[in-house]
Amino acid sequence: MKRVSVLGATGSIGQNTLDLIARAPDDYEVVALTGGRNLDQLAADAVRLRARRAVTCHDDAYSALKERLAGTGIAVAAGAAAVAEAATEPADWVMSAIVGAAGLVPGIEALKQGTSLALANKESLVTAGALVLGTARAHGATILPVDSEHSAVFQALVGEDMAAVERIIITASGGAFRDWPLERLATATLAEASQHPNWAMGQRITIDSASMFNKALELIEAHEFFGVAPDRIEAVIHPESLIHALVGFNDGALMAHVGPPDMRHAIGYALHWPERRHLPVARLDLAQIGQMTFRAPDLDRYPALGLARRVMEQGGLTGAAFNGAKERALDAFIAGHIGFLDMSRVVTEVLDKMSSQDGLQNVAMSLDTVLHTDRLARVRADEAIAQWNESA
Ligand code: NAD
Ligand code: MG
Question: 96 with 117: CB under 8 angstroms?
Answer without folding.
Answer: yes
